[in-house]
Amino acid sequence: MSEHVHKRHNKTLLLYHLVFPVKYRRKVISAPVGQTIRETCLEISDRYEINFIEIGTDEDHVHFLVQSIPVFSVEKIVRTIKSILGRLILSRHAEIKHELWGGNFWTSGYYANTVGQYGNEEVIKRYVESQGKKYVKIYDEQLHLF
User: Rounded CA gap, 59 and 1, in Å?
Assistant: First the structure.
């Protein structure tokens, strides 16, 4: 279970589901490559304020559930993870270079989605819609008294 990140003036719980496809959708993520991905993500967590909650690898793409802080945009998180992972995977697993020409491990695109721990879109929508309603109702009732 994720925990809130406490900073000097804020408290946040920002979770993202990210999916990175391999360049040309090549099936190059083997068990050793998956292990390199997991080990490298631990190193990224130590250096950056990007916490990897879960990592799931398939042969041609990787799913991440990450938690970060609000000063990092989703694009910056993605760029950081993709650049570090891509560079290390290609250096540690030279055999992959034969499948992926051009020196890039990932496609230029990615999938990103926010993950809510306390409710889905409909629950949050109803909560936001209901804000201030009790005051409006009391005010309307007072107008009817006169």
Answer: 27
Burial group, residue 129, by CB count within 10 angstroms (0-12, 13-18, 19+): exposed
Q: What is the pLDDT of residues 15-50, one digit of tens each?
A: 999 999 999 999 999 999 999 999 999 999 999 999
Q: Can you list the domains of the chain with their CATH numbers?
A: 5-120 (3.30.70.1290)
28: how many CB neighbours lie within 10 A of its CB? 20
The pLDDT tens digits of the residues spanning 103-118 come to 899 999 999 999 887 6
Whole-model pTM? 0.81
From the CB of residue 87, how many other CB atoms can be counted at a distance below 10 Å? 13
Helices then strands, counting H and E runs in the chain, come out as 4, 6
Q: Contact 28/14 with Cβ under 8 angstroms?
A: no
At 27, is the secondary structure helix, strand, or coil?
A: coil
